[in-house]
Amino acid sequence: MNPRILLVDDEERFRTTLAKRLAERQLEVATVGSGLEAIEEIQRRLYDVIILDIKMPGLDGIETLAEIKKLNPGIEVVLLTGHGTMESAIDGMRKGAYDYLLKPCDIDLLVEKILGAYEIKAKRDERLRQAEIRRLINRRPG
Fold first, then answer.
1. Cα 82–84–85 angle (5° rounding)?
2. CA distance readout (Å), 64 to 2, 30, 140, 142
3. Contact, 47 vs 75, CB < 8 A?
4. Is residue 72 a contact partner of residue 96, using CB atoms and an 8 Å limit?
5. Least CB-packed of 16, 74, 94, 139 within 10 Å?
6. What digits encode the pLDDT tens for the residues 70-118?
């Protein structure tokens, strides 16, 4: 199964181009142009991995990351920015980002990060599913 990906970036041309390049690699990508739109979108649909720009007007990427993790801690987030600092990288990782990449980013490296994030999420989801099954079995009278 392919990961459900949400690309969040305020630069429309970058967003469109990157979504097209990911689609060429058989990845399904939805796009939004702001942190607020991203939060609204993850409340409507399920996503596995979010590619999130850090420097955006309004809600920046670090603030958006914190909100995403409050709403759905299981979503993996890859931070992607052209304005990276060590501080923002550390802050993003502390707030639960899977990884941090600088623009321009090699598309193969980005795909590798997306698939790595998805693998971690899928394994965690499976462990949670198995734990729930065990819990239900142990609760049965008998």
1. 160
2. 24, 17, 41, 48
3. yes
4. no
5. 139
6. 999 999 999 988 876 778 878 898 999 999 998 888 999 999 999 999 9
